[in-house]
Amino acid sequence: MLPPELQELAEKVSNWGRWGERDERGTQNLIDADATRRGLATVTDGRHLSLAIPLDATSPQQGGAPGRIAPLRTMLSVNQCYSGQDGDAAFNDDTVVMAMAAGTHVDALAHVTYGGYMYNGFPDTKVTAMAGATRCGADKLDPIVSRGVLLDLPLVMGTDRLPQAYPITAADLDAAVEHARVTLQPGDVVLVRTGHMKYFHKGDTHAYNHETPGLSSKTIQWVRDHDLGAVFTDTYGYEVWPPEDWAAMMVVHMIQVRDMGQIQGQNFDMEKLAIDCADDGRYEFLFAAAPEPFTNGCSAPVNPVVTK
Question: pTM for the full model?
């Protein structure tokens, strides 16, 4: 359970019942038509880039969360002709086994429970070994199309990347918003860059998985006050690791997912985007991502695309 001061914060930022007692979409409710039009209005020349990391054996699962595996892709058929006649169509097919959170992904609201409940008061028994997440699963996630804003913390702090295990504060986020010259609005999608993705690009998955900078408990109220539609990071764990206080391990996940219904995700590659934004001085753009609708999934792979 949470320490008393964090229990008080969880109650203060809770979105339970805000969009109805049966709601399973959480802060996606904030990504309305106005948020989508706001994103579309930022597009000037139509160039776009993906923020997804490759789905292969290099995905950042080695030494990470127990039981998660990187994508294992194998062939089902190779140039197989089903008619048996030379010259007829031949087909190549493959299959994959992977953790749903193996690469760039969005967490379903069933991803985190505590105290016997998941988001909006659904009992944690709604997640079972046989059926998966029968409430708040990945199939309840809609496509995310909104204005995106890059908060480039290393650039603002004058460094290549944030120090390992650096706890990001609300003041850090405010400084990045000021640098981006934007006013955040409800339903916006915020991309928090730490520069930690550089470890992944170098092939150092151990460094990428361990002692990661990330959002601290001091950012929870900040995210709630801005009513963000979604928050995504370029790290494995989203929040700072190791935790600031082992008495509340993964507290940002606990409060944001379970109490706020905050859409969040990890392993977003923002390195090229950071260069692009610095080059043209524009840190807002159209953000679009459609989580794969795995029925009763607890997370969903996604290929996020930024258009400027």
Answer: 0.96
